[in-house]
Amino acid sequence: MLICIINPNTTKKMTDNIEVVAKKxxxxxxxxxSTNPKNGPESIEGYYDEVFCIPGLIEEVLxxxxxxxxxxxxxxxxxxxxxxxITNKPVLGIGDSSFHIASCLAGTFSVITTLDLxxxxxxxxxxxxxxxxxxxxxxxxxVPVLDLENEESNALLAIxxxxxxxxxxxxxxxxxxxxxGMADFAEKLExxxxxxxxxxxxxxxxxxEGLVKMKKTTSKLGGYSYPRPKSYAGIFKPFEFKK
Length: 243
What we know:
By secondary structure, this protein is of the alpha/beta class. The chain has two domains: 2-94 and 202-239, Rossmann fold (3-Layer(aba) Sandwich); 96-199, Rossmann fold (3-Layer(aba) Sandwich). The protein has eight helices and eight strands, in the order βαβαβαβαβαβαβαβα. The protein has a four-stranded parallel β-sheet with strand order 2-1-3-4, sandwiched between helices. The two termini are 23 Å apart.
């Protein structure tokens, strides 16, 4: 089995870290290929950044056509619906995958992300996927994505404080870490708080392997139908869909 995991931003170090986490949970027979676009923002923080990631995401999917499944490693699930239209193979987002796993382990959960500007995006995704009824809160620690690995940012302490607040005030029974860059913290936080702490990279690998083993494909009826052939103008000419 070959799973292609795509970091939609252009920061190679983050891509490498995502690959390490993915390989820890992947089965022995699974090969992980990690990649990121050549063009686009260095991190994804809000609606504006998301727009400029999607062309690069499409290019990476088309360049890795031999993969059995694809994972979009941005917690905003950037471009998830668009990518599902260009392939019949399973395509998972780490945000959506985390919500599914959390719902299997707890009656309620909270999402803790990086910045305030990501909170509305995640709330919209939860509503769209129907998880808003069991997600009791979405909050941020106000640490930029690229600062998560900087010890001076005190990111881990900020996340710990927010987890305790959510357990006490929101009655969260599980915590979802709302950024791929937080994945390294999950195991330590789970031991500290003795509740499920879920990160999206591992969640999506497990689900992707399962879907491939079940030989399931993305439906091509309705919204995930292949794009209709049409002309694209200017710099987007190369993105004309040809099945």
